[in-house]
Amino acid sequence: MTTTSPFNFHNYRIVIAGGSKGIGRSMALAFAASGASVSICARGQSALDETAAAISAHGVPVHKQSCDLGDPVAISAYIEDAAQTLGGIDVLINNASGYGFSDSEEDWAAVFNIDMMAAVRVSRAALPHLSASPHASILHTSSIAALHPRPHMPSYGAIKAALSHYTTSQALALAPQRVRVNAIAPGSIEFEGGLWDRCKHEDPTRYAAVLSKIPFGRYGTPEEVAHAALFLASPWAAWVTGQILCVDGGQQLSR
After folding, report:
1. Which domain of life does this protein belong to (predicted)?
2. Which one of 16, 56, 209, 228 is least enclosed by Cβ atoms within 10 Å?
3. Among this protein's residues, is 99 annotated catalytic?
């Protein structure tokens, strides 16, 4: 983080499913910088190891585990190991994506299994631990792609819309257990090795076209999404549940 965090997450246990790169990595580091214990999972071991080391540099407990979030058995094992290592779970963040954008069977299956069903399965596995926490909240990473028809990414947009709807239904269902549920809908976020970083080099015309539709005149950063996550997980958002917060520099306003 480039600024000192105004939030205090000491004694919080944060679990991030999909936390080794991009937005997930920035979230992990933001919570660690605010004093939280953090667990992350991902499939790629090298990025997982690097991010875990960066979390440890903040002097907080860290747990990492390689996990295929398309595998229900692996999900259950990860959540139980994370909860045992951290001593419980206060905040669960479902951030993984299958990055399926086309109308192919493979892309539909990828985003359904990772963006949607992983969030359902991870939430289900974590709920017994969250229910025991006085700070319990769940945060999903949706997208502004869920808000409008998108002919070039039908699978991604539709599944993110389903995830946003699940957020509101889950929030209503878990309110009696005092578990808050919200989602962040990022706009176009640029980071090294990410989708828009690759697009800048491989398809500069498309990169410029998307940039021209962002009122703030630049792409967003993962840190800016992480800042929103800090707020939604904090006591300052104790009366906020069932909400989808756009973090997009006004991008979805300028269609």
Report:
1. Bacteria
2. 209
3. no
Q: Which of 37, 143, 188, 234 is catalytic?
A: 143
Order of strands across the sheet with 91-94? 62-66, 37-42, 13-17, 91-94, 137-141, 180-186, 244-247
Position 174, amino acid: L
Domains of the chain: residue spans and CATH:
13-190+221-250 (3.40.50.720)
List the structure tokens of 13.
């246990």
Catalytic residue among 160, 166, 188, 207: 160
Known catalytic membership, residue 12: no
Q: Which of 242, 142, 140 is nearest to 187 (CA)?
A: 142
Instruction: Give the pair of three-digit tokens for residue 162.
Output: 């389903």
Active site residue 156: yes
Contact between residue 45 and residue 66 where contact means Cβ atoms under 8 Å apart: yes
Separation of alpha carbons 50 and 54, rounded Å? 6
> pLDDT tens digits for the chain (255 residues)?
445 778 999 999 999 999 999 999 999 999 999 999 999 999 999 999 999 999 999 999 999 999 999 999 999 999 999 999 999 999 999 999 998 989 999 999 999 999 999 999 999 999 999 999 999 999 999 999 999 888 888 999 999 999 999 999 999 999 999 999 999 999 999 998 888 899 999 999 999 999 999 999 999 999 999 999 999 999 999 999 999 999 999 999 987
Considering the candidates 20, 39, 137, 142, report the single residue annotated as catalytic.
142
